[in-house]
Amino acid sequence: MNASPPMPEAIEPGSGVHAFPHRHLTGIEGLQPHEIVYLLDEAEKWIAFNRATTKHDPLLAGLTQINAFFENSTRTLLSFEIAGKRLGMDVVNMAVAQSSVKKGETLLDTTATLNAMRPDVIVIRHDASGAVQLIADKVDCPVLNAGDGRHEHPTQALLDALTIRRRKGRIENLVVAICGDVLHSRVARSNILALTALAAEVRVVAPPTLMPAAVERMGVTPFSDMDAGLDGADVVMMLRVQNERMEGGFVPSTREYHALYGLTRERLSRAAPDALVMHPGPMNRGIEITSDVADDPRVSAITEQVETGVAVRMACLDVLTRGRRGVPGW
Amino acid sequence: MTAKPTAGRVAVRHGRIVDPQAGTITPGDVLMEDGRIAVIGHLSPGTIARCEIVADAKGALIAPGIVDVGAMAIDLAAFTAGGITRAGLMPDQSPPLDEPALVQRAAAAGKPKVWIHPIAAATRGLNGRELAEIGLMKAAGACAVATGRGWIADSRLMHQLLAYAAALDLTVIAHAEDGGLAAGAVATAGETATRLGLPAAPAIAEAMAVARDLMLLEETGARLHFRQLSTRTAFDLVRQAKRRGLKVTCGATPAHLLLSDQAIGPFRTFARLSPPLRSEDDRRAALEAVADGTIDILCSGHDPRGPEAKRLPYADASPGAAGAVTLLPLALGLVRDEIIGLPRLFELISSRPAALLGLPGGKVAVGEEADLILVDPDAPWRIDSDGMPGIAGNTPFDGLPVQGRVLKTIKGGQPLG
Lengths: 330, 417
Known about the structure:
The structure holds 2 protein chains of 2 kinds.
Chain A: H1 33-51, E1 64-69, H2 75-86, E2 90-95, H3 107-116, E3 121-126, H4 131-136, E4 143-148, H5 154-168, E5 175-179, H6 186-197, E6 201-205, E7 221-223, H7 226-230, E8 235-238, H8 254-261, H9 265-268, E9 276-278, H10 291-294, H11 302-325
Parallel strand pairs in A: 1-2, 1-3, 3-4, 5-6, 5-8, 6-7, 8-9
Chain B: E1 6-19, E2 24-33, E3 36-41, H1 45-49, E4 51-56, E5 61-64, E6 66-71, H2 76-82, E7 84-89, H3 100-107, E8 115-121, H4 134-139, E9 144-146, H5 155-167, E10 171-174, H6 179-182, E11 187-188, H7 191-196, E12 200-201, H8 204-220, E13 223-226, H9 232-243, E14 248-252, H10 254-258, H11 280-291, E15 297-298, H12 307-310, H13 327-336, H14 342-357, E16 372-382, E17 401-411, E18 414-415
Parallel strand pairs in B: 1-4, 1-5, 6-7, 7-8, 8-9, 9-10, 10-13, 11-12, 13-14, 14-15
Antiparallel strand pairs in B: 1-2, 2-3, 5-16, 16-17, 17-18
Helix pairs in contact in B: 5-8, 8-9, 9-11
C-alpha cells in the first residue's frame, strides 16, 4: 500500500502531496489519471533544462540513489544514472554480475543490505514479476520500478505518454496500436494502463501465441492481423522481440515474424497519414521494424523517447524524494 | 459399594453425535473401551463411575476424527490442532517414498497421536519414468499409490501404473495437470495473470489430464482418485465418468472452493497453490460439485512452507499452503452457507477418505476405532498466519474470521493434549 502522509491544512487539493500521494512508483496500476498527468507535467520542465549546456541542478544534492539492477540493462540504467546525477545525487550502481546475488543470497537479504546503507531512493530492475513490490514493502526509502519481469515498467510508459503528448498535443482519443510480443512485455502492460487511463483508444497487435489471455479485460482491443490493427492508428508503438521467442516456440521463424508483424513502410501506410512510430529499444532492425521507418525523423520518435526518458526519470526522482527533503506540502 | 474406574475406559457425555453414515446428529454420550467405541447412547451413572476419564462435551459435536488424503508433510502439531487423526502422506518427501523401508519408517512417524499412512510413489524418485516397487511398498504399509505433485506425462506408463495397481487392489492418486500446457506456469491464464505478468496456463490443462486418465481407467478397471480438482470442465468429466460407473473419485481443498485467482492480489505468494487458483466461474463449479456429490473428499492439501520458500518473487516461490488447521473451520463455512449438511461434511473429511485409503476410522459406531473429535462448530476465531500451530503458517486465509474449533482430539480412545 502507498500510504499518504498527513497533509497540512493549508495545502490545496491537487497540489503538494495530494498531487502524487504515493511512496513508491512500482507501477502505473493504482495511479489516478491526474497523478500520471502530474508526473508528465513535472517531466516537461526538465526537457528544456536537459538541452542547456550546463545540466546540473543541486535539487537533490546529498541524497543517495542506488540503482539495483538484477537484470542486465544498458539504456535504462544509463538513463536513471544520468537523471540522478543531473539532480545532484550520489548515484551508485549495483550490477548483478558483481553482487552477492550470484553467490546465492536471497533477494530480501540483498534488500536488507541495501536498505542498511540508508539510500534515499532505490531504482530496481528484476527479471521476476512482482520482485519490485516485494522489495518496496521492506525498505525505508522510495522505490522506483525500472522493470520487473513481464509485469510493469512505469517510467517507460510515462516517457512514451510524454513523447506522444509533445508530438501530438494530446493523448485523449488517439488510436494507439501496441504491436509485437505483448505476452512477455512489461512495456506493453504499463503502456496499456497509462494510455487507457489517459483516454486513448488502445489496440494490441500480436501473433496469437504472444497475446496474453483476457487482455481485452484491460480495456484494449486485440488484433492478430497487423494490417487491421494499424488501420487509421495515430501512434504505432513497436515492441522488441526477444530472439529466444523466435525459434519454434512462439513464432516459427524470424522471417515469418517479419513478414506478418514487421513494421515496413508499406504496412505503416495503413495507419493515419501523420502516424507516429515508437520503439522502446533496443531495436531488432529488419525484424520488428525496418530501418527506413525507424530512421525517418518525420514519423519516428524513437530517439526522442530516449531524451524524454531522462526528463521523466528526473521528475520521478524529484517527486518521490520530496517528502524526505522536507519540501513544504510534501 | 463403590465402582472402581477401569483403566482405558473413557466417557464423553452430553455431546451431539455426528454419524456421517446414517446422516444424523443425535444428542448423547459415547463410551470408549480398549481404544474402541463400546456404547453410544445414554450412559448410566454406574457406567460413568467406572470410567477412568469422563469428559463433558457440553453440547459440542462428537464427530469422527478427520482423515486427510494427501498431506505433503508430517506435521503432528498442525494435525492435532486441526482434528486430523489419520493422515495419508504424499510420497513427495525427502527422499521420496519410493521403497519399502521408507514407507515403513514414515508409517511409524506419528504414532500414537496421529497415524501417518504413507502413500507410495508410483515411480522411482517420482521421476515419472519407471514404476517403483509398488507391491513391496503395499506390503510395507502403503495405503495407496500416487503420482506425487507432478503429472505422469508418458501415457503408456500411466496405463501400466493403473493396470498394475488394479491387480494389487491399490487406489491410484493422480495429479491432474497436463505437463506440456502447464510447463513453467504459476497461475491460470486470465485477467489476473495477464495484469500481473505471470506465466500462466489455460485452465483446461486440468481437464486434459483428467480426460486422458479417465480413458486409461476405463481400459484398466483400476481405482483412480484425483487428489485436487479445481475446474468446471474437470468436474464435468468426473461427473460423467461416475455416471458411466467408473471407479473414480476426486478431492478438493477449501482454497479452491473459497478463493479465485483474484486472491493472488499484489503477488501474494501464500496464494500460490498447485493446482493454481482458478476463475470465479471455476470456483462456483467447485461449490456445485461439492453440493451434488461429484467431489468425494475435502482435503487440507497441507503443505507447510517457511519464508525461505515463500518470501520470494511470486514465480520463484514454492506452491502450497498450510491447510491442516483451517480445513475444518473453512469446511464448516460450507455448512453455514447451506451448501452441505453437517453429516455430509464429515463424510467429505472423514468417512470417504478413510474408505478411499482402506483405513479404519470415519465412523461413529459400536466396535469401531475410537478416533473422535469434539468440535464447537460456532466458536469464532481469526486465522493467523504467524500464530498457526505446526511447521509453518503459509495460508491464503490469513486474517479471515472463521467459526469452528476442535476442542479435543481423541485418538484410539485416548484424549490428546
